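Progress report, Aim 2. The chain analyzed during this reporting quarter is listed below.
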Amino acid sequence: MNENQELSERNIPKTASETFDIARQMGMDVDRVPAHVAIIMDGNGRWAKARGLNRSLGHQEGVETVREITTVASHLGVKYLTLYTFSTENWNRPAPEVAALMSLILTAMEEELFMKNNVSLRIIGEVERLPEDVRTAILNLVERTSKNTGTTMVIALSYSSRWEITRAVQSLASQVKEGKLQPEDITEETFEQALATEFMPDPDLLIRTGGELRLSNYLLWQCAYSELYFCDTYWPDFGTKDFCQAIAEFQNRERRFGKTSEQVSVDKTSDCETK
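Predicted structure tokens for the chain:
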């Protein structure tokens, strides 16, 4: 079997109009798109194993999915798309697989994808742990795309929520020690400003592919009130319709943020009257 024959052919929507047509077919309201979608891209290795392929080919196909979902998100007007690319725990994988992943990340950061879709790039994680060539290439792309005004793709690379929270606590503790901050002045807002994600809002929707039902140390603080969407589809098979279906389900949920349904209804009525 030719391994390349197993890689899927994709029909990525070329225009926003095409994406809107697919979104409406999936029952999505294109006027109520979540501002921030975070994704745990799971199932690359299992996708490859199910086809008798090397795990690296699963990751390679997963990159194609990233390109498709980034394009679709930009068409829909999603402001932030945060992708769990490589966790702190992933450093414990076999060295050849880690090396292959780093090489793939290096080749996947195509400037054309970002410029064509007016997408800017940001990175969160322990950047200093990355190989120098990978770190340099990503930081250069962050700089070159910084003036793009569409979707911001945030890649969580060498990232874990426990690392992020620990780092934030250390930062605040240092400020207290130096007399720059009083303990009683530490609030949720102060803490959030010390997080790696301080530049963006919390996710409205978190999607996890691959069938697992856990957050895997990803954006734990930020996902306190995010809507969670789990699907069995492996990441390489996750496409435009799947993404729109996830958003459609998100739109059908009632986000109460601790309030009752009745209070939410009153708030919506007030918002409509104000408009």
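The chain has one domain: 3-274. Residues 3-274 form a domain with the Undecaprenyl pyrophosphate synthetase fold (CATH 3.40.1180.10). These observations will guide the mutagenesis work planned for the next reporting period.
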